[in-house]
Amino acid sequence: MNQKNSTDKVLSVLVVCLGNICRSPAAQGILEDNINKQSLNINVDSAGTAAYHVGNSPDRRSISTLSLRGLDISQQQARQVKTSDFEYFDWILAMDKSNLKDLQSSCPASLSHKLALFSSFSGANEDVADPYYGADDGFERMADHLERLSQSFLDKIESEY
Ligand code: 4NP
């Protein structure tokens, strides 16, 4: 961000949820697809605040929901947020307010400007609902929501860099 307006700066973005198997892998897949289509210079990764599913593939319901939209997220592997992420990434975007609170509690104060709720770029203050314990249609709503929020984020980033 201190290189604002630099044309060759590659921005890096970390999207974060709780388990890194449902929402943030889907957000990563959708962002990467939009970034490719718009020829933007942005790298995306995802992680979870919790370690429950470290090393696992995304939830099969996230994989199939995105597959029906032409996106393959099956090769992603869950990992937990680590301290060096706060240094490395330009933006660290939380799927819900609980994730944001967890990130705020472990992020050094000097780097906390990198943290944001994903929905904040659309002018909202809403959670991406956690679909893990719900029915399959929750994954469709999640993907619709993530597509809207991804575009809002990229529009905002494009206007600023
Ligand atoms: P995610 O969903 O945070 O979107 O990956 C969840 C995945 C697993 C659990 C909770 C939420 N879990 O409790 O195991």
Short description:
The chain has helices spanning 23-37, 60-67, 83-88, 97-106, 137-160; strands at 11-17, 42-48, 91-94, 115-117.
Main traits of this protein?
disordered N terminus, 5 helices, Rossmann fold, 161 residues, 39% helix, four-stranded parallel sheet, alpha/beta, binds 4-nitrophenyl phosphate, globular
Taken together, the total number of domains comes to: 1
What portion of residues belong to β-strands?
5-15%
Per CATH, the architecture is 3-Layer(aba) Sandwich
Overall average residue pLDDT: 94
Which of globular, elongated, flat, extended, rod-shaped describes the shape? globular
CATH fold naming: Rossmann fold
Class from secondary-structure proportions: alpha/beta
Number of strands: 4
The run of helices and strands is EHEHHEHEH
Structural features, described:
The chain has 161 residues and is α/β, with parallel strands linked by helices. It has a single domain, classed as Response regulator (Rossmann fold), CATH 3.40.50. The protein is globular, with a radius of gyration of 15 Å. The protein has a 4-stranded parallel β-sheet with strand order 2-1-3-4. Helices cover 39% and strands 13% of the residues. It is built from 5 helices and 4 strands, in the order βαβααβαβα. Helix 1 (23-37) crosses helix 5 (137-160). The model is unreliable at 1-6 (pLDDT under 50).
